[in-house]
Design goal:
This protein has about 475 residues and is of the alpha/beta class. The chain has three domains: about 5-110, no CATH class; about 115-205, 2-Layer Sandwich (Beta-Lactamase); about 215-465, Rossmann fold (3-Layer(aba) Sandwich). Helix content is about 35%, strand content about 20%. The protein is globular and about 80 Å long. The structure holds adenosine-5'-triphosphate (ATP) and magnesium ion. Magnesium ion binds near residues 250, 251 and 320. GO terms for molecular function: ATP hydrolysis activity.
Length: about 475
């Protein structure tokens, strides 16, 4: 039996059915493909790739193969591609042949041209503006790549594959969709008619390898003193809000902070597209769902928060707070689920507080402004402000305690801050982390929980220059 035939019989047995939809594969062993007489030596790789891929798709019924991602399946399909490749064009050199086979495999089983980018661990964001313009972010800087899709249809196929993997769809009536890759990376796709110059895809990569505490310390995103305080606050169950602009590292911080949660506590996470990767044993992950085409079946963050309260959580982590769920979340923080965390979009801690007020109003609940502020000041203990500075560095720029109210105003005091002092010759911001000299009023709460901080922890000084 030839290698190919062995591969095929294995494919058949893997699919677990005698009539597996793969029977057409037997046709592969016939040598009568068009263009297989060796005259195709001059064909460019792109065209060859397309031909081999379409032959493969013609002959395999992929909808009937259960586990496309398994290694065994990859191996088997690889054999078929190798065979097709050799019949199509025996004049390829070894390196070209290998590249072609890998690319057809990626095309067939993975995310096509995106695969090379997804395999590169230095890339944090992938931004596709139509089929021919693909940008990536490396170390805080955007750069254009030479990766391209064949055309918009090709891009659409890949988008379809990504979103259908998690049971969502994208089409003219539903042109904007959130999804995630199997490794946890977050994906947003927008297609025509909303996106005007070809489909647009934004991938936030950190799935397989999220930044850890040590990485963030190495990048000088904050200092060891700040890390120590944050650890103490999480252990002592303070309620924490992480505030910041788009892409400044909020989710990364939330993930890192959650590593301080003791392993025996029951945590429920609620997100639009599950990005968090908690290391704890006892975690229940909930993901919201958009409405279907008839406008039915939506499950909002608010629904999830309400439901989570019935699941006996010790802490609730909301990936991003952006609307109607705000009051429910604050109430949960106030009533037995202290130690909860969330992120929100705001540029300063003070703005974060007013954002909370706006979001309470978005929930359609009429509360006098004073009552609203009372809820907020009673629930939130700490605001961590994150920022992406000029030239790329992402830093915690403020750690602010939320105190009580004085008349109608919520009193806050900054404990640590990052002060930007200028821009260096490479266009990168520089500055220093400082302790403001304020001793937070929650220190006794930390001590009650047995957390002891060094006596000079809050003394006014410069902590680190960067
Ligand atoms: N301190 C840091 N240094 C370098 N890269 C970082 C840092 N923090 C986060 N990143 C990277 O920056 C990207 C954005 O991070 P993250 O997703 O946490 O931001 P975000 O504020 O949650 O974004 P969004 O507003 O889109 O939800 C990620 O790829 C992450 O790995
Ligand atoms: Mg985020």
């Amino acid at each position: 039996m030839s290698r190919l035939q062995q591969g095929i019989s294995k494919l058949n047995s893997l699919s677990g059915q005698s009539n597996s939809g793969l029977s057409g594969l037997s046709r592969l062993s016939s040598p009568s493909f068009g263009g297989s007489n060796g005259s195709s030596g001059g064909k460019n790789l792109e065209e060859l790739k397309r031909q081999i891929h379409s032959k493969l798709v013609e002959r395999l019924d992929f909808s009937r193969i259960k586990d496309l991602s398994s290694d065994a399946m990859r191996k088997d399909i690889r054999k078929v591609i190798e065979h097709l490749c050799d019949t199509e064009n025996p004049l390829l050199n070894r390196i070209e042949r290998e590249k072609l086979i890998e690319e057809v495999l990626d095309e067939t089983l993975g995310f096509g041209p995106l695969e090379v980018l997804l395999k590169d661990p230095t890339i944090s964001d992938i931004l596709v503006n139509g089929p021919k313009k693909i940008y990536v972010e490396r170390r805080g800087k955007l750069e254009k790549t030479d990766v391209v899709f064949r055309d918009n249809d090709h891009l659409m196929q890949i988008i379809d594959r990504i979103v259908s993997k998690i049971g969502r769809r994208v089409d003219e009536t539903n042109p904007m969709v959130d999804a995630r890759l199997p490794d946890g990376s977050r994906v947003n796709a927008v297609i025509a008619p909303i996106s005007l110059d070809g489909a647009s895809l934004s991938i936030r990569r950190f799935g397989s390898n999220p930044l850890k505490l040590e990485d963030l310390l190495n990048y000088k995103a904050f200092t060891p003193e700040i890390a120590m305080l944050l650890e103490a606050c999480i252990k002592a169950r303070l309620n924490v809000v992480i505030s910041g602009g788009t892409g400044c590292g909020k989710t990364t911080l939330l993930n890192t902070l959650s590593s301080f949660i003791p392993a025996d506590e029951r945590v429920i996470t609620i997100e639009d597209a599950a990005e968090l990767q908690l290391q704890q044993e006892h975690v229940v992950r909930l993901e919201t769902r958009p409405a279907n085409i008839e406008g039915k079946g939506a499950v909002t963050t608010r629904d999830c928060v309400k439901n989570a309260l019935r699941m006996r959580p010790e802490r609730i982590i909301i990936g991003e707070c952006r609307g109607g769920e705000t009051l429910d979340m604050l109430q949960a923080m106030n009533t037995g689920h202290s130690g909860s965390m969330t992120t929100l979009h705001a540029n300063t801690p003070r703005e974060g507080l007013s954002r909370l007020e706006t979001m309470i109003m978005m929930g359609g609940i009429e509360l006098p402004i004073k009552a609203m502020r009372q809820q907020i000041s009673a629930a939130v203990d700490l605001i961590i402000q994150a920022n992406r500075l000029q030239g790329g560095p992402r830093k915690i720029t403020s750690i602010t305690e939320v105190n009580n109210m004085e008349q109608d105003v919520i009193i806050m005091q900054e404990i640590f801050r990052y002060r930007q002092l200028g821009i260096d010759q490479n266009g990168r911001a520089f500055g220093q982390f400082e302790a403001t000299g304020v001793r937070p009023s929650f220190v006794p709460r930390l001590e009650q929980k047995g957390v002891k901080l060094p006596s000079n922890m809050f003394a006014e000084r410069v902590l680190l220059r960067d």
